[in-house]
Amino acid sequence: MINVRTDLVLEAREIYKENHKNEADIDGIEVIEESEKDIRVTTVKVKNEEGAQKIGKPKGNYITIDIPDFTAYDGETMDRVSEVLAEVLGRLIEINVDKSILIVGLGNWQVTPDALGPKVTEKIMVTRHLQSVMPDAIDDSVRPVCSIAPGVLGITGIETVEIIRGVVEKIKPDLVICIDALAARRIERVNTTIQIGDTGISPGAGVGNNRKQISEENLGVKVIAIGVPTVVDAVTIANDTIDLVVDSLISNSSSGNDFYKMLKSLDKNEKEKLIKEVISSKSNIDMIVTPKDVDLVINSLSKIIANGINMAVQPNMDMEEINKFMG
To answer: In angstroms, rounded to a whole number, what is the distance separating the alpha carbons of residues 30 and 21?
Structure first.
């Protein structure tokens, strides 16, 4: 499989199926589609190493939530998505009330498309310290939660996983939840998809900056990753635009259809490789693109994810109580 820039398992599965049209199903991959509060939720289970090798993603469970249009402008819809996220996280979090949780906001807070993780940590209901600071005011049903935003290697000079491992060794949480900005293959997935997985995460993988994986294997504690694709590769945009132009020419032109159909039949991977080579020959800049309203969208997405996590890790509290606490 070509190294397409995507962190989304749904897209990796789609790409594999596009390249292997003769396969009705992918061995080792199970897909379950459902609807929660009119929001589509898709679970992809990578059940064995064969399935993992085919789509290039580790064995485990990946749950995708499709965010409705204009959610960033609609507080009621934002709350519905948060509730669905909380319900989905609840399936993966099996932890007693006395167990502690570490929330990690990955990414660079100085770069808006990469600031999702740090912005989420600002809105997390942290409670780990309260049992010692104000024990009389804290109910026994409140889970101890703490959070950090460790920054990126270019700012700290330290591998992110090393910072997290040091914190984990010191405070010994029972679960780590990481939040990060991802990269998508399809333009329509940008800022419209939340992916939750139980296999850990490699910061920067989607944009080619592979760092050491944050996983149970490296930390010694279960890791759940939550991400939203906030960027797409410029090569992808160019490739998709060419496809749209060719489709339009085929449907509207009375001549030259054979030539246009020949262009359409070109192997998608070869076409993307050619576009990348042409762009690279004109400029050494590797371009990643994000929507112009990214500031607003990141703020909304961080609130959705933080509220979802807060509800999932504090199941004995409702949204009103959490908002009052955060007040």
So the answer is: 17
Is the same domain home to 40 and 78? yes
What is the token pair recorded at 178?
């990481």
Identify whether residues 157 and 223 lie together within a single domain: yes
Among 168, 278, 180, which residue's Cα sits nearest to residue 234? 278
What CA–CA distance (Å, rounded) separates 56 from 35? 27
Q: Which residues of 98-129 are buried (b: 16+ CB within 10 A; e: fewer)?
A: eebbbbbbbbbbeebbbbbbbbbbebbbebbe
- How far is Cα 93 from Cα 79, in angstroms, rounded to an integer? 20
Contact 323, 143 (CB under 8 A): no
Q: How confident is the model at residue 1 (pLDDT cuts 50, 70, 90)?
A: very low
Q: Does an H or E element contain 231, and which?
A: strand 223-233
If DSSP codes are grouped into helix, strand and coil, which group holds residue 60?
Answer: strand
**pLDDT tens per residue across span 206-233:** 455 556 889 999 999 999 999 999 998 8
Q: Fill in the DSSP letter of residue 133.
A: H
Domain extent, residue 198, equals 9-235+288-326
Element (H, E) at 315: none
**Distance in angstroms (rounded) separating the CA atoms of residues 217 and 220:** 6
Q: Indicate the number of domains in the chain.
A: 2
If asked whether residues 262 and 225 sit together in one domain, one would say no
CA gap 121, 126 in Å, rounded: 9
Question: Averaged over 287-307, what is the pLDDT?
Answer: 91
Torsion of the alpha carbons at 112, 78, 62 and 206, rounded to the nearest 10 = -10
Helices (H), 44-190: 49-55, 75-92, 116-121, 130-133, 153-156, 160-171
